[in-house]
Amino acid sequence: MAEDKVDQASERVRARMTEGKVDRVSGRARARMTEPFEAGVVVRDLELMERFYGEVLGCRPVHRSRIPASVGVPAGLGDELLVVWLQVPSGGCVKLIQPRSSPSPAPPVLPLTARRGLSYLTFHLDDMDPVVAALAAGGARPLSDPVVVWARGRRISFWADPEGNALELADERGGVRGAGRSEA
User: Do 59 and 53 form a contact (C-beta atoms < 8 A)?
Assistant: First the structure.
């Protein structure tokens, strides 16, 4: 009887391995991602931030929802929330989250590695130059000095959005290194 249960359990593990639900090396269960990655950003002014991410980074709203306190509280999100899902042009989503009670201001972002946890969102671009110009016009401020830094064959630039959330731009565009750029 006990052997039958062990055989059944072994058969279930083998079946999951063939379905790709168990790692063949470690034997541990694993899940398959079913949707592109999403990142949530808590904001104070939802309209301002939706406009900023749309106009400057090309993100477009794909869903908007009010999350009631009856869901937000037990889920660990706090009180009632408004959420806008913004589709990033290259895939994935940025969720702008506005709690009913105004969140505290974002902590200082420099240096980005001085605090634990999520520090910034990275946007990979074919050419960051037009976005760098649009960021400044859209109310963002550069965190990199110089604004664009060459690092291992690509360009990177860090910015704080209008509410102080850190963003990284990255591109692999070659070309002449001009003023306001450095090599790392």
Answer: yes
